Amino acid sequence: MAFNHLPAAMHDALGPLSVTPVTHSVPMAKNHRPGRPAESRGSRPSPAMILDRLATGAGRAARITHTEHLPPRSGTHAIWPDRVRPEVISAIEKAGIDHPWAHQAAAAEHALDGESVVIATGTASGKSLAYLAPVLSTLLDGSEAPNGRGATALYLAPTKALAADQRRSVKALAAPLGNAVRPAVYDGDTPVEEREWVRQYANYVLTNPDMLHRGILPSHPRWSSFLRALRFVVIDECHTYRGVFGSHVAQVLRRLRRLCARYGADPVFLLASATAADPAVAAGRLTGLPVVEVSDDASPRGELVFALWEPPLTDLHGEKGAPVRRTATAETADLLTDLTLQGVRSVAFVRSRRGAELISVIAKERLAEVDRSLPKRVAAYRGGYLPEERRALERALHSGELLGLAATTALELGIDVSGLDSVVICGYPGTRASLWQQAGRAGRSGEGALAVLVARDDPLDTYLVHHPEALFRQPVESTVLDPDNPYVLAPHLCAAAAELPLTEADIALFGPAVPELLPQLEAAKLLRRRASGWHWTRRERAADLADIRGGGGRPVQIVEEGTGRLLGTVDAAAAHTAVHEGAVHLHQGRTHLVRKLDLEDSVALVEQAEPPYSTVARDTTAITVLETDTEIPWGQGRLCYGSVEVTNQVVSFLRRKLITGEVLGETKLDLPPRTLRTRAVWWTVTEDQLDAARINPEILGGALHAAEHASIGLLPLFATCDRWDIGGVSVPLHPDTLLPTVFVYDGHPGGAGFAERAFHTARAWLTATREAIASCECEAGCPSCIQSPKCGNGNEPLHKRGAVRLLTELLRAAPVEPDEPTTPEH
Questions:
Q1: Side by side, which strands form the sheet with 590-598?
Q2: Which of 20, 668, 787, 794 would suit a FRET pair with 476, their CA atoms being 20 to 30 Å apart?
Q3: Contact 212/156 with Cβ under 8 angstroms?
């Protein structure tokens, strides 16, 4: 599975590539807009008081395993650079901002000096204003040009919602400037009749990398006047561009720079992120340019009270008789209900679309028992909604009509939700960066805020609520970004050639891997070399070769069978697990059952129903070693890193009770297998090591399997990945190693760097894994230590004590960590 629609031979020719991590960290900062009067507290309770009320009730206080208090901080003002137009300063003052913070003035100075800059300060520290001041000044200068269109600026956001929110903010801020600033959103939701106006007249275009890749760059002749005048490119929430997605966006930006140069423009890049420790390096890798860093946060922040919350054990038993905790979903729904009853404006962040819908449904039902007018004050917000549904929810949140919102990460990034008092995070979101980004949504008017992390019943969450230092005393994980990954670079070379023939002069722009890839693209008959350079040779659109979000194909449409109404979409990569036949699908609080999944037409037919259960897909995985890049001895065993081929097939699904998670039954499925060529880390043990660990053949499979599950669960502590970004396989006798072997692999074609990060931190990673298993209070294994929600074998076999002894023996001979790879210069 290389890049979509490319010939298999092309995939074979490319081979693997090592990915170099870049380290980031996050400041724990709160906010308020400079000079903006804080909302009058009145009777608003303090964060500590809100938490005390949540802890009231039988056994509730015991669920709080740790409380962290982050004190308030005062701010430092400065003055705007002289080159910021007085009209712009006046407009900013009319918005209630008398003086900039020092970091805002510094960033504006760099931008007006023509230096690309990354603003890496805390959540809601005024990063938007830091780049808008120079951008609006330049647009105002351009509006006075006697001829031509004047200056233009391009804004890129990772989500449509953030772009729409920023347009509202820019329009309000720039209103006193009249027609000099003409902001417009250009994305997949923009009506066709508006698009020509945007191309011809808008001078501040807000879009996303997807539309830039598929819509704007391939149609650059129609955008020529805009690109010719392009002075600034704003990249908001730039920390989200990591892994394979970030590598794709890096190449999209190089294509943009190439076309700008073709039209005589050399735009300055302005990047913003609240979660970065080495932001200049990461921003440089993303843009391919030298970038100046502004990271000294001069804004004030309110008090933040951060509680870690572990749901209690129930009397129920799960798979193999394991004890079952109350689900994080049910616990979060209770907390959102209680916060709403207190009148506390809150967002509950949930990792899955289904979870957001379920929490909303449960909270509405419980609120209705108290007051029938309250359920309308709570809603769900997630990706996959139709544009008009998303916009209506955003308006209701802004107006205060909604008190509580159960949201996926679609609401995490930058959207102005000022006035929130608390955030509930349902399950660790996968990285510390996301954790602080979500926690920072509360307290955005400068008031104190409460954040609560509700642990799921899995190894990582359990580890974190009992090891708070892993959250509050550690920087953000290393971020992986590799624009030279051939599975990423090759389709973008094709797209660039379709936009303008590639020349020798372009090689330096796209990176050192280009000379090796161009002959392979010629051999695959994707490019043809002529005197003027390399040309795209096919009729189809070259931009379609690169699926920058790694969805694996066109989205599957979810259609109501009886009416033909389109309910939403799901990524192709998730279709086998999310909308298989028999799956329960939630949309806007209504439950549907999937009656048919048509993979050829990318349609899932559903009908409304109210089953008393949810569904979870099961799959099986086999793995083949293609090439071992690096290996080191661990005593008699080996630690290896290299290329593998993974074959995965969804084979069944479980039905679970909604609140308790109790398994009701399993249904077989007949779906085609899917293959993936990627990167993996693996370790082997010898017979002597097994003897020393007292591992006999009867428990070997269970010990390996348990160690694999727990290590996947703990890896997100050491790399910017989610457990759903990675997979694993354990084999008592693997045919390629001829030894008992545990594999952990990247879930992306060509790799995403997560497995490489695991290789380079293996000692610390596996030590934490062993500790998580050994310290769990269960007898034989449970979801808090070795059971996995995504296990294709129904968590069978598993052997907890065997896994502890096995990892103890493996770590006994573990060498000092290999040196971290250096970051190559581009």
A1: 566-570, 556-560, 603-608, 590-598, 584-587
A2: 787
A3: yes
* pLDDT tens-place string over residues 443-495: 766 678 999 999 988 888 888 999 898 888 876 655 566 788 787 899 999 99
pLDDT above 50 (res 11): no
SS3 content of the chain, % helix, strand, coil (to 5): 40, 25, 40
List Cβ neighbours of 593 (8 Å cut-off, separation of 6 or more).
582, 583, 584, 585, 606, 607, 609, 611
Task: Report d(CA 709, CA 772) in Å as an integer.
Answer: 11
AA letter at 727? G
pLDDT band at 817 (very low <50, low <70, confident <90, very high): low
Distances in whole angstroms, Cα of residue 273 to Cα of each of 24, 27, 182, 645: 11, 10, 25, 35
Q: Around Cβ 371, how many Cβ atoms within 10 Å?
A: 10
Residue 30 structure tokens: 């709160």
Confidence grade of residue 409 (pLDDT, cut at 50, 70, 90):
confident
**Among candidate residues 10, 18, 36, the one with its CA nearest the CA of residue 447:** 36
Q: What distance in Å separates the CA atoms of residue 105 and residue 117, rounded to the nearest whole number?
A: 12
- H helices of 183-242, in order, are 192-201, 209-211, 224-228
d(CA 84, CA 110) in angstroms, rounded, equals: 12
Of 708, 713, 749, 714, which Cα lies nearest the Cα of 729?
Answer: 708
Give dist(CA 826, CA 823) in Å, integer: 9
Note every long-range contact of 608-614, with CB atoms under 8 Å and residues 24 or more positions apart, other chains counting. Answer: 608/560, 611/584, 611/655, 612/657, 612/658, 613/584, 613/655, 613/656, 613/657, 613/658, 613/664, 614/354, 614/358, 614/584, 614/655, 614/656, 614/658
Q: How far is CA 303 from CA 274, 486, 607, in A?
A: 17, 46, 47
Q: What is the pLDDT of residues 555-594, one digit of tens each?
A: 889 999 989 999 888 877 778 988 999 999 877 668 899 9
Residue predicted with more confidence, 412 or 757: 757
Give the rounded distance of the alpha carbon of 541 from its chain centre: 28
Q: Distance between CA atoms of 11 and 34, rounded to whole angstroms?
A: 52
- The structure's pTM equals 0.74
**Cis ω on the peptide bond leading into residue 735 (within 30° of 0)?**
no
Q: State both tokens at 269.
A: 């890049």
Q: Of 386, 434, 350, 360, whose CA–CA distance to 161 is shortest?
A: 386
CB-based contact 499:255 (threshold 8 Å): yes
CB 258 within 8 A of CB 223: no
Q: Would you call 742 helix, strand, or coil by DSSP?
A: strand
More confident residue, 466 or 721: 466
Residues 6+ apart with CB under 8 A from 332: 348, 350, 359, 406, 424, 426, 454
User: For the CA atoms of 639, 620, 771, 464, what is the dihedral angle to 10 degrees?
Assistant: 120
285 Cα distance to chain centroid: 18
Contact of 736 with 665, CB cutoff 8 Å: no
- Asked if 403 and 375 touch (Cβ cutoff 8 Å), the reply is no
Any idea how long the chain is?
A: 826
Alpha carbons within 13 angstroms on the beta-carbon side of residue 654 total 19
